[in-house]
Design goal:
- The chain is mostly helical.
- The chain contains 5 helices and 2 strands.
- Strands 1-2 form a two-stranded parallel ribbon.
- It is globular, with a radius of gyration of 16 Å.
- It starts with 15 loop residues before the first helix and ends with a strand.
């Protein structure tokens, strides 16, 4: 891994996830296998914060992002939020109903 200038970073300077990847450590659990994610991290349903942008960011980072259905207000807005999330990531995500 490199820093912004392109210099190679020693493993101890990498964030924990970066260190795991640098050393070839892959954490496989029943959760990662079940949901097809890299890390056993599931975003909680966050009322007033569980929008597509957050869910897509969590999913793109290797966890399972969650859209909060109640935050959307109507089924039509929830459907649009799901479509928006699908546009932002090709990774798995969920919807908390």
């Amino acid at each position: 891994m490199t820093d912004r200038s392109g210099a190679v970073l020693p493993a101890q300077r990498l964030p924990m996830v970066g260190r795991a990847k640098a050393y070839g450590i892959i954490m496989k659990t029943r959760i990662t296998e079940l949901f097809g994610i890299e890390h056993p991290i599931i975003q909680g349903g966050l009322h007033f914060a569980g929008f597509a942008e957050m869910a897509a960011a969590v999913s793109s980072a290797g966890g399972l992002g969650i859209i909060t259905g109640l935050t959307q207000g109507t089924p039509d807005r929830l459907q649009k939020e799901i479509a928006h999330c699908k546009d932002m990531t090709d990774k798995p995500f969920g919807v908390n109903l």
